[in-house]
Design a protein that fits this description.
The complex is a heterodimer of chains A (592) and B (374). Chain A is mainly alpha-helical and 592 residues long. Chain A has 28 helices and two strands. Classes of the chains: A mainly alpha (592), B alpha+beta (374).
Chain lengths: 592, 374
């Protein structure tokens, strides 16, 4: 019998014009999914970030100054307006992280470990907060408390509260609210894995309730540090609050200072890059501090023997107190912003100098009839569909690389850039894109991308990629490699095996990642603000433009419709999944 | 179930490195068509790498693999797993949780391109064969560990592959279930007539299943032979110790005859067998097979000992005893002997094996506590 010795890589015709070694290398390149993945990672993530940030040290490298290597771009960052803004951001970050972590800890305990009646309201609130960008929360508050706002129209005297809100207190409050879901999910996950055996061990060995609580708190330390680091990073990277409460209250923060810098003429890219590096360093510092603090304290509390904790039965008085606490928290985090936005959207004439206002749906009618109000929603929907699809596709491959059990350089590379990109504020991302895709040599290559929807989609995808990848990593990591091996051994090619085995196993997480990316992109602000093509504003910019034109009613109506539209898409997607996905796909992750 | 056409598996010079570690080191092995070969070795011996290389999940760095006359791996040459026409039972079952038991089994028939009715018939037949005909609609999480592994077994046999690979399939199961499933694996594999390669670290499993046993250590094959041959004539000290001993002593060769070797251990002379070229005065390890010991009166090749522990084993009692040479376990007697009793242990020379010692000794060998072992 003849031996089957066909080579795996087919021979290709060499490029005669290239040097021999290069020709060989080019010959070896195959257009595989991994090749496309690495090309995309390079062009949408690595090149824009690296080129832009390198200008801080080497202005001449990209024709932004005379010096090949200098630290002079960093001087303005720590003095004057930039320095003040940076200090404000740092302070706000610390306050928000401490506040959000403390509230999240109390909520996690109340929801997971007690029978307080209002605990059932909380999970929905967390996901709503996750989806709501910070500028929407801030705008809700603003519509209520601004001059000639909803509350003043209702005849209430709220000036003292307004003065508080339009300053550091209000900004810190919104940042805290926005950080709350991140902190809560981290702490709640840790608490879920903390069985009651630790508490019982303290009690049977003579410890009091307080001693048991101390042990529990120690075991939760890793998650508390993680929560603080995440909220801090989110807070100092935030642009939504910066562009709303911060700009109106004249309490500058670093991200808004960056935005103003990029809108000034001439644009000083080296200083913007230096500010970005400083912001990035602060975030990385938080992550580093978290790692240092956790050294040797990463408690492994979850095992097959973990016994689920039992609920603490609260007395009637404590139940009433804790439920009131939850309700107040709900009002502050969601209730007031929603009431502010919904009431504003139904007030005809809000923002004008009229003395008579009426409550009706005229603002909504205007949105449906005015293309200036309607088109941003349509445009953002299209962009979000494209972005969610691209980002989830790349994120799936990235998470596969990240969860591979074989150590590799590519794994470390992806890990580093995705971590760096998580830490990179959206506004820095957008400036990186403006800078890179306006460079002369990029244009000389025939890549005239700046100001196009194509570039906006790429920037959206790159911006969403880190969080989307991280959201899939956990699920991808749970898939035993032997299941794919089994499919291959029993006759399936790699793609077939992936479609038959991996895809069904992560179908629900993929859908959730897609929906989170879709919703996040639909309402995204910083990248939209800086990269939208002329004449095609996305939703967030459309809202800002309406508000800038004192059409508060129209702006808030688009805001409400966008959120409703995101919820409708989420509803439709889950309906389709639950109705048409094979039964086995839907069973995964459910209880018996 | 219909018999398949098995083929010979030939591995030559197989080498696989993970960084500086060679999981397989110029490994040679031939598995005869239709035979059941068990590869036995401790963790890190390379058995998993070998079976994964046979499956095509790992690529060899060097060497070649042939299935019959067909080369499936060689230098810069690797046939993908799906083109190797084999089936495998995994240690963690590797059942797909989103598919029912029937769907899991039927998946292995996709490459056969059978009519739907034939596919259903064969799936039901395979499930029936492993005693799960009523559980086809169940998802894996609705099945017990043993049932899950049965589904994996049905998935492996349903396509009637010429080669069946088993990657420690019983290691996650409890003792009773392991024994029952072992019998099923042995029966089913021989029923379909496939060549089978099974890896395990459990010597009792290996002896119970195998036509041939290969013993691996540090990526190299130490010996391959029939179970009886491995047990009676292990190639070296490692093979002997990994295939079951109840005690070992250090001694020096006193005299050698054609069939036996007299070894001085402390104040006692023990008669043993050796396949090695030993010389009088050579330092040797004396390994005692569990079947070599029994409790008798004073006599030739006996040692005085004290009973340390006793365990009831159904057909009788197994004792752990301490003699001046050390501890011997698994000493069988039909009646229980109380802890602390003084007894004599007979050591059957046939199952007492002497091997050149690799240990370095720096003290007097003639007293009981003679050796300082480095």
């Amino acid at each position: 019998m003849a031996l089957d010795t066909a080579p795996l890589v087919r021979d290709r015709v060499p490029f005669s014009s290239l040097p021999l070694t290069l020709a060989k290398k080019v010959n070896r390149i195959r257009i595989t999914p991994m090749f496309v993945f690495w090309t995309l990672i390079l062009f949408i993530l690595v090149i824009p970030i690296v080129l832009f940030l390198s200008v801080a040290f080497s202005p001449r490298l990209m024709s932004q100054g005379n010096q090949w290597f200098t630290f002079s771009s960093f001087k303005p960052v720590f003095s004057g307006a930039y320095g003040t803004a940076l200090m404000h951001s740092l302070t706000l970050g610390i306050v928000a992280s401490l506040g959000a972590t403390a509230i999240a800890l109390s909520m996690a305990w109340l929801v997971l470990r007690t029978d307080t009646p209002a605990r059932f309201l909380w999970n929905g609130t967390i996901f709503a907060l996750f989806l709501a960008p910070s500028y929407l929360i801030a705008l809700g508050w603003q519509r209520l408390f601004e001059q000639r706002g909803v509350l003043e129209i209702m005849g209430l005297h709220i000036e003292p509260i307004r003065n508080l809100l339009y300053g550091p207190v209000g900004i810190a409050l919104v940042l805290m609210v926005k950080g709350l879901p991140f902190a809560y999910l981290v702490i709640a996950n840790a608490m879920r894995g903390l069985g009651e055996e630790f508490e019982q061990a303290v009690r049977v060995h003579g410890g009091s309730r307080i001693a048991a609580f101390k042990i529990m708190a120690s075991l939760l330390t890793p998650s508390l540090f993680s929560a603080m680091a995440i909220v801090f990073a989110e807070a100092i990277s935030d642009f939504g609050v910066a562009s709303t409460l911060s700009s109106i209250g004249h309490f500058s923060v670093a991200t808004y200072q960056l935005y103003q810098g990029i809108n000034s003429i001439p644009v000083n890219f080296p200083v913007s890059a230096a500010t970005s590096i400083t912001l990035l360093s602060l975030v990385l510092l938080a992550i580093f501090a978290q790692n240092r603090a956790l050294r040797g304290r990463s408690f492994r509390t979850l095992s097959g023997r973990t016994r689920p904790a039992t609920l603490t039965r609260l007395s009637l008085f404590v139940k009433a107190s804790t439920s009131s606490y939850i309700v107040v928290l709900l009002l502050i985090t969601l209730g007031i912003p929603i009431f502010g936005a919904v009431s504003a959207s139904m007030l005809e004439g809000l923002g004008s100098l009229l003395s008579h206002y009426s409550i009706n749906f005229s603002n909504y009618t205007r949105v449906f009839h005015s293309r200036f109000l309607r088109n941003p929603l349509i445009y953002s929907t299209q962009m979000s569909l494209i972005t969610a699809t691209i980002a989830v596709a790349i994120a799936t491959i990235a998470s596969k690389v990240l969860t591979s059990i074989k150590p590799s350089k590519s794994k470390k590379f992806v890990d580093f850039f995705l971590l760096a990109a998580v830490a990179l504020p959206g506004i820095v991302f957008a400036i990186g894109y403006i800078f890179t895709y306006n460079l002369r040599f990029i244009n000389d290559l025939g890549l005239h991308l700046y100001g196009t929807s194509f570039l906006l989609a790429l920037a959206y995808s790159a911006n969403a990629l880190p969080s989307t990848s991280r959201s899939l990593v956990g699920n991808m990591g749970q898939i035993q490699e032997s299941m794919m091996d089994a499919a291959r051994v029993h006759g399936s090619k790699p793609l077939r095996a992936w479609l038959d085995v991996t895809m069904p196993l992560i179908a629900r997480p993929l859908l959730i990642a897609w929906l989170l990316t879709f919703s996040g992109t639909l309402l995204e602000l910083p990248v939209s603000e800086l990269l939208y093509p002329p004449g095609s504003p996305p939703v967030a910019v459309g809202i800002e433009l309406s508000l800038a034109g004192f059409d508060y009613g129209g702006g808030t109506a688009i805001e409400i419709l966008s959120i409703l539209w995101a919820l409708v898409v989420v509803g439709i997607a889950f309906f389709i999944f639950n109705r048409f996905a094979p039964p086995g796909w839907k069973r995964l992750g459910r209880l018996r | 179930m219909k018999q398949v056409d098995p083929y010979r598996v030939t591995i030559r010079g197989a080498t696989k490195r993970y960084g500086a570690l060679a999981a397989l080191d110029s490994f040679d092995l031939t598995i005869e068509p239709g035979s059941f070969t068990v590869l036995l070795g401790p963790s890190g011996s390379g058995k998993s790498t070998l079976i994964r290389s046979l499956a095509g999940i790992e690529r060899l760095d060097e060497g070649s693999i042939y299935f019959g006359d067909r080369q499936i791996a060689g230098d810069r040459f690797h046939v993908a797993p799906e083109r190797r026409e084999l089936a495998m039972v995994f240690q963690d079952y590797a059942l797909w949780p989103h598919m029912t038991a029937s769907e899991n089994v039927a998946y292995a028939l996709k490459r056969r391109d059978l009519p739907a009715s034939e596919s259903v018939r064969r799936t039901n037949e395979a499930l029936d064969r492993v005693g799960l005909s009523t559980k086809g609609a169940n998802y894996p999480f609705q099945l017990s560990g043993g049932e899950q592994q049965r589904v994996a077994l049905a998935r492996a046999i349903v396509g009637r592959p010429s080669l069946l690979l088993f990657d420690e399939p019983l290691s996650n199961l409890d003792a009773d279930l392991r024994e029952r499933l072992r019998v099923e694996i042995a029966t089913l594999t021989r029923e379909i007539g496939a060549t089978a390669c099974y890896i395990t670290h459990d010597q009792s499993e290996a002896f119970a299943l195998a036509d041939n046993i290969g013993v691996l250590r540090s990526g190299k094959l130490q010996q391959i032979a029939k179970p009886e041959e491995i047990y009676r004539n292990p190639a070296n000290r490692f093979v002997a110790s990994f295939t079951g001993i109840s005690g070992s002593f250090l001694g020096s060769v006193e005299s050698i005859s054609a069939t036996t070797t007299i070894v001085r251990v402390g104040e006692n002379a023990i008669t043993a067998r050796s396949s090695e070229n030993l010389q009088p005065g050579s330092l040797v390890d004396v390994l005692i097979r569990p079947s070599a010991t029994s409790m008798v009166g004073d006599g030739l090749n006996t040692l005085p000992a004290v009973v340390l522990d006793v365990a009831y084993r159904g057909r009788g009692y197994e004792h752990v005893v301490e003699c001046e040479l050390g501890v011997i376990s698994g000493v069988f007697a039909p009646q229980s002997v109380a802890r602390g009793s003084r007894v004599h242990i007979y050591i059957d020379p046939e199952n007492c094996l002497a091997f050149q010692s690799e240990r370095e000794v720096t003290a007097d060998l003639t007293t009981p506590n003679f050796a300082v072992i480095k």
